[in-house]
């Protein structure tokens, strides 16, 4: 062992002892710290989502995004909690064939909380908003707990939580995605693993808890689960206490790893069953009883789908601006951590180690940031938005089951946590150093202001009300959603892997704008959305068995099934694949002729045709006339 390792090990042991002594403080001190987390992170969550917090009962916080889908999913989970139906298989999606919800709805922890709130009397919008804000508060609290586990003081831990709260996949791409906000499980995994590796002979139940935490992450976002496993591996290799006995410890802990694996597999077994063994494997637009999703993923490596790189249009020379301005969704955490890592290295050279265990994370953080940058470019190189056959380092991951389905931008949640820990450690050191200066109060106030500005610039809230989605619950007596109605469009997906991938996320096409060669379709004004919402309610995502069939066949089937469905469920938006309809205006005429309602073309591009029902003309009455 080198002299540096000896110093690091002894410093780490002393720091661990100090931390454990602090943890043995009074129960009141721990409760006070928990209360401070709730108050501080609650205020931060409201600030970063403002003014959505002023409309908790009437408007969905955020820019829309997947909010309608998650509102529907919360209803579905609420019904599952009381045994009304199963969790995964539903016929209310991709009607009439049905779909496996495991592919699109992994926000189960937040949905359970919201479902319980609905059973307690909360409206769907209020339950959704509280679940979203609660997830943000949990992110901050989990990161603060993790920071305390790795040896930071209470003040630094609170700062780490504040940085992390503003980062998980850029707060669900600015609050439009409930599942992406839920990054608390990852912070809990890292903190628990740190503590586990500190112990020479940990009890088996600690491995079981780690397995349960891993399962919690997977049930939130399975991409985050992959990154949580990666975090455990990283911590194992960078932990100074294991440097000289890593292999021996790995062998000695074999029972613990076995317990961890058993607990994790048992906890996610229903999800694995839904993903791999479901009789209805819906993936890539294909609905076949025998093909499993991972097989489809593996085959797609040999037959690349150009749409697979759709989300990564940034050319190489635009990479840095794309990451810096937030379009890569890194949030503030990685950047604060990157600066913090450099500061730790500089301080270490001048004054010795600051926090040895955290210093060992500098290299993994740098590698993670590099992987994040490369992966965000996609499997193939884009030059000025044009796809080329030049492969990028991310391409081999396309052949790995499950990993190929992850979105590489979500790696930012891992770098955000490491960044929050590193940044908080540096700020703690700077805070103490400023306390020795003459104008310490002024300097410390400037430090607080600088951190606040960094968080605000890195995680500025979505403009409001131009992009807010006013989903006001309206009682219509629809049993499938417990008597509450709101807007989810009908979708006819294609066999394109990209189209099938967003088939359960159709509202982005209507609210955020459909990607076109010229840019993005303008967003609907808030007042237009409000008028549409007056008559727009929950609908099935309706599809056909053979998406490539001729227009006449599609029209025949739609004329037979769609009017009857619309007569039972009000629907005021249809998103249609352009390859199925030669002329948009002909589609509008067909809808008006068969459904007896007034429709308008909202957005048209090479992929989607978005039709919306005219405001003020109730869908139910019009479709009832059509059926009769």
TrEMBL record:
The keyword Endoplasmic reticulum does not apply. The keyword Plastid does not apply. It comes from the Bacteria. Keywords: Membrane, Transmembrane, Transmembrane helix. The chain crosses the membrane at residues 28-50, 70-89, 101-120, 126-145, 152-171, 209-237, 257-282, 332-349, 361-381, 411-430, 442-459. This is Glycosyltransferase RgtA/B/C/D-like domain-containing protein.
């Amino acid at each position: 062992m080198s002299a540096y390792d000896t110093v690091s090990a002894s410093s780490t042991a002393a720091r661990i002892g100090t931390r454990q002594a602090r943890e043995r403080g009074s129960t009141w001190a721990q409760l006070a710290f928990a209360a401070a987390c709730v108050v501080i992170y609650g205020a931060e969550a409201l600030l970063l989502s403002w003014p959505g917090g002023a409309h908790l009962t009437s408007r969905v916080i955020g820019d829309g995004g997947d909010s309608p889908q998650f509102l529907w999913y919360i209803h579905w989970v609420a019904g599952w909690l009381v045994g009304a139906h199963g969790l995964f298989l539903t016929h209310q999606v991709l009607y009439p064939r049905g779909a496996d919800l495991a592919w699109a709805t992994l926000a189960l922890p937040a949905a359970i909380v919201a479902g319980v709130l609905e059973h307690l009397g909360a409206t769907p919008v209020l339950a959704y908003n509280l679940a979203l804000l609660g997830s943000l508060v949990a992110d901050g609290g989990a990161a603060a707990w993790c920071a305390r586990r790795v040896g930071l003081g209470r003040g630094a831990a609170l700062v780490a939580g504040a940085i992390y709260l503003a980062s998980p996949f850029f707060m669900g791409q600015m609050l439009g995605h409930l599942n992406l906000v839920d990054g608390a499980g990852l912070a809990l995994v890292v903190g628990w693993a740190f503590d586990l590796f500190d112990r020479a002979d940990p009890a088996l139940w600690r491995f079981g808890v780690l397995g349960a935490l891993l399962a919690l992450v997977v049930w939130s976002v399975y991409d985050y689960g992959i990154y949580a496993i990666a975090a455990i591996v990283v911590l194992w290799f960078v932990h100074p206490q294991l440097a000289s006995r890593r292999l021996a410890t790995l062998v000695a802990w074999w029972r613990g790893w076995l317990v961890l694996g058993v607990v994790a597999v048992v906890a996610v077994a229903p999800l694995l069953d839904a993903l791999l063994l479901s009789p209805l494997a819906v993936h890539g637009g294909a609905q076949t009883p025998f093909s499993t999703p991972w097989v489809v993923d593996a085959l797609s490596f040999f037959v690349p789908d150009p749409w697979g790189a759709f989300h990564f249009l940034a050319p190489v020379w635009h990479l840095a601006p794309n990451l810096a301005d937030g379009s890569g969704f890194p949030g503030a955490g990685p950047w604060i951590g990157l600066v913090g890592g450099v500061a730790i290295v500089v301080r270490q050279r001048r004054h010795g180690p600051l926090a040895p265990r955290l210093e060992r994370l500098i290299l993994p953080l740098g590698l993670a940031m590099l992987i994040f940058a490369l992966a965000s470019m996609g499997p193939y190189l884009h030059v000025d938005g044009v796809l080329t056959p030049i492969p990028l380092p991310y391409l081999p991951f396309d052949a790995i089951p499950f990993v190929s389905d992850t979105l590489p931008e979500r790696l930012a949640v891992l770098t955000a946590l490491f960044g929050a820990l590193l940044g908080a450690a540096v700020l703690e050191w700077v805070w103490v150093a400023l306390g020795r200066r003459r104008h310490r109060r002024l300097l410390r106030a400037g430090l607080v202001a600088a951190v606040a500005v960094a968080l605000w610039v890195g995680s500025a809230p979505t403009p409001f009300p131009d992009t807010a989605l006013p989903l006001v619950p309206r009682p219509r007596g629809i049993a499938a959603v417990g008597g509450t109605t709101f807007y989810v469009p009908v979708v006819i997906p294609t066999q394109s892997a990209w189209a099938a991938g967003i088939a359960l996320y159709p509202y982005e096409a209507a609210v955020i704008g459909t990607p076109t060669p010229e840019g993005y379709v303008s967003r609907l004004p808030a007042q237009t959305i409000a008028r549409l919402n007056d008559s727009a309610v929950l609908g099935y995502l309706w599809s056909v068995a053979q998406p490539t069939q001729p227009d006449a066949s599609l029209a025949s089937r739609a004329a037979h099934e769609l009017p009857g469905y619309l007569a039972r469920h009000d629907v005021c938006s249809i998103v249609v694949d352009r390859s199925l309809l030669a002329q948009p205006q002909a589609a509008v005429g067909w809808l008006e002729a068969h459904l007896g309602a007034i429709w308008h073309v909202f957005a048209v591009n090479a992929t989607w045709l978005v039709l919306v029902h005219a405001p003020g003309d109730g869908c139910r009455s019009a479709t009832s006339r059509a059926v009769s």
